[in-house]
Amino acid sequence: MPHPTPHKHGREEPLVQLTGLTCGYEGRVALSDVTLTIMPGDFLGLLGPSGSGKTTLLRSILGVVDVYQGQVLVEGISPEKRRPRAGYVPQLETIDWSFPVTVQEAVMMGHTMSNPFLPWHRRSDVRVAAEIMDRLGIGHLAQRHISELSGGQQQRVFLARALVSSPRLLLLDEPTAGVDIKTRDDVMHLLHDLNHQGVAIVMTTHEINAVAAHLPSVVCLNTRVLAAGPPEEVFTPEILKLTYGADMPVIHHDGLTLVAERPHLRARNARRGPLHDPDTSGHAEDHRA
Question: In this structure, is residue 128 part of a structural domain?
Answer without folding.
Answer: yes
